[in-house]
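anyone seen this seq b4? input:
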Amino acid sequence: MICFGFRASNLVFNQFMDKKVQKLIETSIQIIKDASLENGAIVAANSDKEYYPRQAKDYHYVWPRDAAYICVAAQMAGIRTIQEPFFHWLNYRPENFKKEGLLFANYSTNGRMEVDQFQPDQAGSVLWAIYNFYKDDLAKAEKQEVVIRRLADGLCSEWRGKYFFKNTVDLWEESNRKTSTRMENNHTYSLAACAKGLLLAHKMLGNIEWEDVARQMIERIDDSYDHKQKSFLRNHGRIDDPNIDASLLGLTYPFEIILPDDARMIQTVSAIEKNITINGGVHRFQFDYYDGEGSAQEGAGAWPILNFWMSIYYSLRNDRKKSEAYFMWVVEKIKDDYMIPEQIFSDFREGIRPLVWSHAMFLIASKYLGYL
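predicted toks r here
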């Protein structure tokens, strides 16, 4: 009888969680629609909405990287009405993009540059999103030829065979971790995004230079594996950064530079779990103090996008048990408003919510687990 009761309660709990996942899917679709503006811009969070907390930091800006993931997630959820307007927005709105072919940190919805950090992974991520939208009929990708060429040529123009000429900043936007203009140094995640983006641009339009530059970047990624530490380095070159960083998951998904069952990737994920996964929640990197709202003295929280990223990784490894564990860790902690924050803390702090990228990664992980 005790055993039967345990099974029954387990069944009820699982049914409850399944319903919560479905409600989260519905909410995520609405939040993505809310973030997709009339002029084609896709913002990281729509602070104009009633549900956006008054005290939360304003994320009513376009980060092209966030928008790229949002476009792919929306497509998985059956939404195909926001992607081309966003590609069009990219074509004519971002400040200096037509002139330089480069994307910087973030932009106001009218295209004015807000932060002038060169983040090359953004261009690679957008190329990935464009390819995904047209992959069933690549001939239609010619509709975005101007944007594709501008993005790919912009990356190649700054590449010097082993590093970028400009200072680069990675996806976490830590301004004190810029790469140098005077010596070889690269953010590994950024190279993965750029290499994949250039390979996909070559598939769409055909340009051998793009492919050659991508191969050079992949060589740098292979060289960033540290055999002593048994993980990829988040930053590699003349000066290495050995701190474990969860963004290295991007080498496998979505950029497919390293296979999920590659021994080097398995060891890297193991290092992420050992060093920056705390009580089930995945943190960005060692010694991370950014918390979005507080003084930053209290330390950072776990990032839902990273739990979902780990879930996707384990889905690719066909390990459903671990994939579900990382996925449900977040789902269980989401409040009754079904809004997924930027960070989850173990204390009273509340992260910025809803972060649209969090909802996008939730939808992608849901797709891999079969909920979507």
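The chain has twelve helices and eight strands. The chain has one domain: 17-369. kinda curious what u guys think
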